[in-house]
Design a protein that fits this description.
heterodimer; A: 1% strand; elongated; B: mainly alpha; Cytochrome Bc1 Complex, Chain C; 2 domains; two-stranded antiparallel sheet; 16 helices; 2 strands
């Protein structure tokens, strides 16, 4: 009799694949809006026309009062106030500027200095005409060519920052996302890594500070931004990347600002989220290969055994 | 008391007490299997292997899982996935096996329907199999609650709500099932117990019944042939292995079982390591939050077809039809009035019934996941009606079938 098994297998595989296609790729395609990547080009922001001078940028930054809110640890300038007080004053703790030049796009930084709400894409929340001022005060110039001045300031920030390739995934994440988002699986709070305390009292005191910080943040953002520990699994790489690039593309009207990371820094942010929520990915690849080799050998032996046993049956 | 003699060997010692030789014959070497069967007959063994994988991986997970609403999510996603050596592996094996086991169950079920393996003496095999399906469904649902993610919580909310019976408003029953007004600690605790103790016990008992129900009628074959097992097995034992129409279960058919298991495991471990997303819904990696309803709530893929029978109608009719869909498969041996135990392709109109049922259940499955809007709603409605009509028509079309 003709062997029907290949046909039967084809039928089984066909119906399985049709079902899989419909409930997985197709259904998710219908349910979730697709957002194309803009490759972190920030095409909506004006191009940089001037070449900056770091030395004059340093002077400008000192005189423009940036350090009134921001610390620049790399230049020996400490934060003017502690994180909780800063959050209570501004809604969120203003970032340290030491590595801003390495993590954020230069075009974005230039626009941010001149018009924060515009660069951050939160003009729906901060409309100067209605008196809703963004907590970061715009730089209106020191009397010279403002574009030249901004370019100088950006050049200064780039000059004090570590080299972009030396930015670690944790640095990128903590700088760009970590003042709003906790990552409890990496022991990260909005106020930094939670230290190991000897006494429970001290640990609780730290927790209370974090709660105070979170209360201020909640009032500023409308809700507490989520803990991102498992976001690499609950969302996906493409979603996170395009959300970071421009939150408004996914959630129109969201309070989450565009943070303006470079494409490389965005990759590092995602790398950090993988370290938090998918920490065994390399082990999985490695063990997967070994298991496959083992199972294929098992299947070959099973096939040979079947052939041997069935030789007498026909 | 039986007469015991001094044992000549360990085997003899056991034999006098446990009749191991007899058992071995009944279960293995003289358990006769027809030769004219194909790899679909190995699905039972594939299911045994998958169930074993579920039990073993489940035991490892059970060592670290914490069944409290405070700790459940972190014990799975932090402790098991990050801290415990190979915890991620056991979790992925468990999650993927829980999904794949249903794929194999459906293949196994439709094999039975296609070849008429529920007829004439094999009714109990079918019924115990369908009870296993119900038990596996309960096991899958209770297990899905345990990570206490968003889908756990909201699926728990939706499914327990079904017990209010629509217009009956049996809210007391829902609260009794949950042990609270909403899914909370009492709910998680009892579903944990069901998942790790009561339902696995029921499944193991039912597997025993399923195997037992198979022993006397023997397995069916792919040609609808009536085999005289006594005559054919005698032929085999007399040395005419090639001429006999039957073979031993072990090692003859077992060797083929193992070959199919080998191929299956290649597929299975590919999924475990490289394509596990379908079995572990992303939404469930957000911790349960009773104040935040996910945009789309849908069950795992294997429940979608029955979910879609519930969804297109008003709540009362939906519930009635949903209940209908849950029990109707069990009644198949009695609804099929045909006297023929042959493959569907030789049964005329039943062949159409079979392929239509299969295709329609895939359509229902797809519509169950897609948002119930526009075209998808319409397709879902007609598919659900078709499903019910097909079952109502089954006794009629099969009673016209002539004896072949």
């Amino acid at each position: 009799m003709k062997n029907k098994e290949p046909l039967i297998l084809a039928v089984v595989v066909f119906f399985t694949l049709v079902t899989y296609y419909l409930v997985e790729p197709y259904a998710h395609h219908v349910m979730h809006k697709h957002v194309e990547s803009e490759h972190f080009a920030y095409a909506d922001l004006p191009a940089i026309t001037k070449t900056g001078d770091a030395a004059s940028g340093q002077e400008l930054i000192m005189n423009a009062g940036c350090a009134g809110c921001h610390s620049i640890e790399a230049a020996g300038m400490p934060a003017p106030m502690d994180a909780v007080t800063a959050a209570q004053s501004y809604g969120v703790n203003p970032p340290d500027l030491s590595n801003a030049g390495a993590i954020y796009d230069a075009k974005f930084l230039s626009d941010l200095i001149k018009n924060p709400a515009h660069a951050l894409k939160v003009e729906h929340k901060f409309d100067a005409e209605k008196g809703q001022m963004h907590p970061m005060v715009a730089f209106y110039g020191m009397g010279g060519d403002i574009d030249q001045e901004v370019a100088d300031m950006v050049a200064y920030l780039q000059s004090i920052a570590v080299k972009p390739e030396d930015v670690t995934p944790a640095m990128a994440f903590q700088d760009a996302c970590g003042r709003c988002h906790a990552v409890s699986y990496e022991n990260w709070t909005q106020m930094g890594t939670k230290p190991a305390f000897k006494h429970e009292k001290d640990a609780l005191a730290f927790d209370i500070q974090v709660m105070d910080y979170q209360d201020a943040l909640k009032a500023y953002m409308g809700k507490l931004p989520p803990d991102l520990s498992m976001y690499i699994r609950s969302r996906n790489e493409h979603f996170i990347s395009t959300l970071v690039e421009n939150p408004q593309n996914h959630l129109a009207g969201t309070a989450m600002p565009r943070v303006g990371v470079t494409a490389e820094a965005a990759e590092k942010v995602i790398e950090h989220m993988k370290n938090a929520g998918d920490s065994k990915r390399f082990e999985r690849e490695e063990i997967g290969k070994n298991v496959m080799i083992y199972i294929i050998i098992f299947a070959i032996f099973a096939l040979l055994w079947k052939k041997q046993v069935w030789r007498d049956l026909h | 008391m039986a007469h015991f003699t001094k044992a000549t060997s360990v085997k003899d010692w056991l034999n006098q007490r446990l009749a191991v030789e007899k058992v071995e014959k009944v279960m293995m070497s003289e358990y006769w299997i027809p030769k004219n069967i194909n790899f679909l007959w190995a699905m039972g063994m594939v299911l045994v292997v998958t169930f074993a994988l579920l039990v073993v991986s489940g035991i490892f997970l059970l060592m670290y899982y914490v069944p409290t609403t405070e700790e459940a999510f972190n014990s799975v996603n932090y402790t098991i996935m990050k801290e415990v050596d190979f915890g991620w592996l056991w979790r992925h094996v468990h999650g993927v096996a829980a999904s794949v086991v249903f794929l194999i169950i459906y293949i196994h079920m439709f094999t039975g329907i296609y070849y008429g393996s529920y007829k004439k003496g094999r009714e109990l095999i079918w019924i115990s199999g369908m009870l296993l399906f119900v038990a596996f469904s309960a096991e899958a649902f209770s297990g899905y609650m345990l990570p206490w993610g968003q889908m756990s919580y909201w699926a728990g909310m939706v499914i327990t709500n079904l017990f209010s019976g629509g217009s009956l408003h049996a809210d007391g029953l829902v609260e009794w099932i949950r042990g609270d007004y909403v899914p909370a600690q009492a709910f998680l605790g009892r579903f944990f117990m069901l998942h790790v103790l009561l339902i696995p016990l029921a499944i193991m008992g039912l597997i025993g019944l399923h195997f037992g129900a198979l022993r006397i009628p023997h397995v069916n074959n792919q040609d609808g042939e009536e085999i005289d097992f006594d005559v054919e097995s005698k032929k085999y034992l007399d040395g005419d292995k090639a001429g006999s129409k039957v073979m031993r279960f072990a090692n003859d058919f077992m060797s083929k079982d193992m070959m199919v298991v080998g191929v299956f495991l290649i597929f299975f471990f590919y999924l475990v390591f490289w394509n596990y997303g379908f079995a572990m819904d992303p939404v469930n990696f957000d911790p349960a939050d009773g104040l935040k309803t996910p945009a789309h709530i849908y069950p795992e893929w294997y429940f979608l077809w029955s979910y879609e029978i519930l969804r297109p109608f008003n709540v009362d009719l939906g519930l009635v039809l949903f209940a209908f869909a849950q029990v109707i498969f069990v009644l198949l041996p009695f609804l099929d009035r045909s006297p023929n135990t042959v493959p569907a392709n030789r049964r005329g109109i039943f062949a159409i019934w079979f392929w239509l049922m299969l295709a329609n259940m895939i359509v229902l499955t797809a519509m169950g996941k897609l948002p119930p809007e526009g075209m998808f709603s319409t397709i879902g409605l007609y598919s659900a009606i078709l499903f019910v009509v097909q079952w109502l028509a089954l006794p009629i079309i099969t009673s016209f079938e002539k004896k072949l």
